[in-house]
Amino acid sequence: MSLAYGNNRSAQLPPIVNRILYVKNLPFKITSEEMFDLFGKYGAIRQIRIGTEPNTKGTAYVVYEDIFDAKRACDHLQGFNVMGRYLVVLYHQLNYKAKRVDLPKEEERVEQLRQQFKNMGNDDEDDLS
Fold this sequence. Notes:
It is built from three helices and six strands. By secondary structure, it is α+β, with helices and mostly antiparallel strands. It comes from Kickxella alabastrina.
């Protein structure tokens, strides 16, 4: 179901939609000016941050002034070909980092569950004899 948000500013947007777009699969040689030209067509941009480290190259964050402009940009630029690469445009998930699991604690919890089920299995074997 597709809704036209452009003309209806009072429309209810899905909860995932926000002003910050996360862009992947960017050409490594793209400049800030080219990013502003490409994304600026859809509305006023507050900030663009392009990844420069080896593990962030080819990615960027684009922050729009208005959530509806971000929605239009995401809808129109998803899969758009830039310098031979197809863009992946997603909404930044603000709570994603908060949901990360503390690996040592999770491993400890799994080990406790294993012991608990192992002990339960031994009890069941005694009942079957």
